[in-house]
Write a structure and sequence with these properties.
alpha+beta; D-Amino Acid Oxidase, Chain A, domain 2; 2 domains; about 25% helix
């Protein structure tokens, strides 16, 4: 079967589902292809929750994108009638001179992001269940919170379908042929001819964009759910998320949604993945060592051994920033990759940007710092 469309999106995870939605809401004929199921757990956009925050210590250039992302998440909630974003707040702690705390304050100064500095005498009362190391600075961002990650992906797809998008799940790509006139994609079931192509393939980006030779690496990451012994972490008691910059790694987590477990993980580190299709999803003896140490030192009201785990992948660039761009030799192709373990919160706006690039060839969003041209000298 041959299908002809204006726009084709390869990969319907966080970014691809959003790109599909933004193309469909513009009234365009668009098809999305996903090698797994809807809101699947084989890539990077799963695990119940993802933090969203505006005091972006990674780089202040992200903040205008975040401001638009917040608007778009709220619009999607209104359109769908679903709760996708919970503004529970975020506590960030670390050495005062460290890149994390310094970055939080820089974001606050440059973009007037609401950030509270919490005094040492207030920490215990405001954040019960945490033993913040001596000398650490603690901040609180009231506008931060978390996104329900699978619901966000599913909702983007459902809303796109209601506006005419076609989606094909559990179809692996056999070949992609790109010419000056069109793009041809063959799957196990069909032959699709498109005028424009958006590639949002996550950990499979290097394979899908081999001719561009993007400097991407994929690492294995493990998420943990640990049992709580006290109710001090509970969402229903007004508790929020956390990010702590320790000497041996950066750790983040969420309030307890069910009163029985807390989800947390190490943001730093990760073992290289040679083939994302063969990720080891078993829990290894060494996987929980750093998180268990963090629990013992900082969160004593959690049991140190996880009762549940999930594996995902970070796809990272050398500088840790995303790459969102057009194909250097064929403007019919645009892509987003390297979302580095901190990208999901941007999915709503990245989809809009990719739709802009595919339809107009440019975007009004400030994404120059995400261009692949920065890798030219590598």
């Amino acid at each position: 079967m041959t299908v002809r469309v204006d726009y084709l999106v390869l990969g319907l995870g966080g970014m691809g589902s959003s790109a599909l939605y933004h193309l469909a809401r513009r009234g365009l004929k668009v098809v999305g292809i996903e090698q797994f199921g809807v809101a699947h757990d084989r890539g990077s956009s799963h695990g119940d929750t993802r933090i969203i925050r505006k005091a972006y210590f990674e780089h202040p250039n992200y903040i205008p994108l975040l401001q638009r992302a917040y608007e778009l998440w709220h619009e999607l909630e209104q359109e769908s009638g679903k709760e996708l974003f919970n503004p529970c707040g975020l506590m960030v702690a670390g050495p005062p001179e460290g890149a994390v705390i310094q970055g939080v304050h820089l974001a606050s100064r440059l973009y007037d992001v609401a950030v509270e500095k919490v005094s040492a005498s207030e920490v215990t009362a405001r954040f019960p269940g945490f033993q913040i190391p001596d000398g650490f600075e603690v901040t609180y961002e009231p506008e931060a919170g978390f996104l329900y990650v699978e619901d966000c992906v599913r909702t983007h797809i459902e809303c796109a379908e209601r506006q005419g998008a076609q989606v094909y799940f559990n179809e692996k790509i056999q070949s992609v042929t790109i010419s000056d006139q069109l793009i041809e994609v063959k799957t196990e079931a069909q032959h699709i001819i498109a005028s424009r192509l958006i590639v949002t393939a996550g950990a499979w980006s290097s394979a899908c964009l081999a001719e561009i030779n993007l400097p991407l690496e994929v690492v294995r990451k493990v998420l943990f759910w640990n049992s709580v012994e006290q109710p001090g972490y509970n969402l229903d008691q007004g508790k929020g998320g956390f990010f702590v910059d320790m000497p041996y790694g950066e750790f983040y987590g969420f309030p307890s949604l069910d009163g029985t477990t807390v989800k947390l993980a190490e943001h730093t580190g990760g073992e290289l993945v040679a083939n994302p299709s063969h990720l080891n999803r078993e829990l290894l003896e060494t996987d929980a060592l750093a998180v268990s140490r963090f629990i013992g030192e900082v969160m004593p009201d959690l049991k140190p051994d996880p009762v549940r785990h999930a594996t995902c992948m970070y796809t990272r660039t050398p500088d840790g920033h995303f790459v969102v761009d057009r194909h250097p030799r064929n403007p019919r192709v645009v892509y987003g990759a390297g979302f580095s373990g901190h990208g999901f919160k941007f999915a709503s706006v990245i989809g809009e940007i990719l739709a802009d690039l595919a339809t107009e060839g440019h975007t009004t969003h400030p994404i120059e710092f995400l261009s692949a041209s920065r890798f030219d000298e590598l």
